[in-house]
Amino acid sequence: MIKKALDMFEGKAIIVGLDYELYDYQAKLVIAQASGALTWADLWRRLLNEPLLPLPEDSSIFRVIEKHSSPLGDYRTALIHRKNKVDNNMSDDNINCQEQVSNKRFLPNGNEKELIKKVQKYIRNNYSLVRLTFTMLDKSTIDASKPICKMFYDNDIFNYETAIDGDISYRNVMVFNRDGHDLIKTSFYRPKAKPHKKGDPRFWPWGFKKSIEQDTLIYITTFENTAVIIPLTEPVCTDAHLESVFGSIISHVNLVEELINEIKQFSGRWVKSCNPSKKSPKDVGDTLELLLGLDINNRSDADYKSSIELKAKRSSSKTADTLFSQVPDWNVSPIKSVRDMMLTYGYLSTHKQRQGYKDLFVTVSNIPNPQGLFLEVDYDAEQVVQYHVIGSKKEVTAIWLFEKLQGRLIEKHPNTAWIIADETLIDGEYHFNYNKLELTSNPIFSQFLSLIEQGVVRYDWRGGYEIDGSGRVDKGHAFRLKSPKFRDELFGEIETVSLI
DNA sequence: GAGCGACCGGTAATAGGCTT
DNA sequence: AAGCCTATTACCGGTCGCTC
């Protein structure tokens, strides 16, 4: 009986896998989540109790896939990988076309991505993207998603929480158009819904229909406590229009030039490592800070004149970028310390020098890891939450407050210089050659949260504790960006500078 | 060839017990 | 009560090796 039920789900997974170009295990995960389970194994356990569980509907399957697709890029996340074009040949072209059309509805196309970057040269506040559908224009409403509600609340624009269903409030909203921009009277409200249920938060700028076409992607952000709507089309989203509102591009050009000139004193040639006899991961960064005359530090702010954070890497490295280290807010977390965390969820150390330790060197992403730990973003409570799951039991373990994370992210990365070095051995001594630099500025916090949801930003536990004793290791428990290739998702525009 | 889990080297700040 | 010492915690800088 159970076998048969599982077979049905597996069959559905195979079909979905083919339709959406997923690996088997990914398709299974999608089916599991669309059925309300956390993982395939979890679904299996649920079927034991409830063998007649229906197959998930296509709409919920699509929702899961949509949830795991990035709003900013045309790639799939950790959960859903795009297969190589090469092994696509056997798939049905019609299905492919339909799939592409439905995905394109949400994702920015190439031109729109360029316009997003252009906007972000001028204004870096939190933002959301909405693709205007036929229904929105027809009914004259835009649904305010959770991040949009939060953005309006944070900037004293509108509070949907205290709004009474059916009461319509009006605020002026800055709407960009072909001639520049206008302040447009805009309605904010929750419609009267069923009893015991709050109406979905909505807004609509008066006369928006006249100035906008269906399927336009709009960029919603805030500026000096006013909501701003920028349709991402060429004639509207111009430098002239943006500059007239937000002023000329803010830059740290001088400080950056100063840094580049300092690095050029020793770039493009081999310089001896600060620890030449031994190869250690941190040397590439420590040597750079030494050359620049900076103290090797563990300060939590940026390295160079508190304004530019330096990140050095070996050119051979393709590993995750450490964004910043931050332990959870213990006073609001069920787990009360790192030690508590390690001893509760750690595994017995296999390391020779740490016999009798519980280690936890693991990455926590949006899907459960081998310890059953995963992250979720709770926009209502304004927290990033680490859950632990065994079977169908899911419990909160640790919590980071938005406020703290936002502070850390902005404090640490106002401007970041990612410096690439080659490494070589000369006469038995290690040397570095710093020769390339990538510059990023002002990370976008809403994007940070979105990337957590997508599994692109993850949290690493990096430590261990002696079970009955005081021995410990701690390499810094940190939020990290899965791969350097996602830098532009978090930071928007990136500038590459050659140092040779 | 990239993803992923596991893992490496450090220092600064702070709390609390003990001595003076 | 001031000062000192030590234990503890929270940050800093990263890569490696196996699998799919």
Automatic annotation (TrEMBL):
Pfam families linked to this entry: MvaI_BcnI
InterPro entries reported in the protein's UniProt record: MvaI_BcnI (IPR029127), MvaI_BcnI_cat (IPR043004), MvaI_BcnI_rec (IPR043005)
All residue ranges annotated as the MvaI/BcnI restriction endonuclease domain in the record: 262-486
Name this polypeptide is given: MvaI/BcnI restriction endonuclease domain-containing protein
